[in-house]
Amino acid sequence: MNRYCFCLQVRPDRLDEYVDRHRNVWPDMQAALRESGWHNYSLFLRADGLLVGYVESEDLEAAQQAMAATEVNARWQAQMTEFFQGIDGRPPDESFLLLPEIFHLKED
């Protein structure tokens, strides 16, 4: 299983609404993520809008492509696009700035 970390920038004037939307992610969206190969997926949000995501997947590109083929993802991304800066109208899940892993404390 590979680990991936990414960043996006949420518009500071939309932070509260963005957080509210993620308190109740649609059950069909959660199921689609699991079925598409997204594991241990977490989002972290700084007060200035920096969003850091972490996900584990055998192949993130394949997991993203599988999600892109779902109807629920099209609906979700259409609603989420307006919350982000710097993505030029692209869906947020196609706009990740992936960060290279430089250290991992392995379990014994």
Summarize the SSE layout with pairings.
Blueprint: E1 2-10, H1 15-23, H2 27-35, E2 39-45, E3 50-57, H3 60-68, H4 71-80, E4 84-85, E5 97-99
Antiparallel strand pairs: 1-3, 1-4, 1-5, 2-3
Query: Helix- and strand-based class?
Result: alpha+beta
Overall average pLDDT: 95
Strand-residue fraction?
25-35%
DSSP helix fraction: 25-40%
Q: In total, how many beta strands?
A: 5
Instruction: Characterize the biggest β-sheet.
Output: 5 strands, antiparallel
From the alpha-carbon coordinates, what is the Rg to the nearest angstrom? 14 Å
Backbone shape: globular
Outline the structure in words.
The structure is a single chain. The protein has 108 residues and is an alpha+beta fold. Helix content is 34%, strand content 27%. It contains four helices and five strands; from the N terminus they run βααββααββ. It has helices spanning 15-23, 27-35, 60-68, 71-80, and strands at residues 2-10, 39-45, 50-57, 84-85, 97-99. Strands 1, 2, 3, 4 and 5 form a five-stranded antiparallel beta sheet that branches. The protein is globular and about 45 Å long.
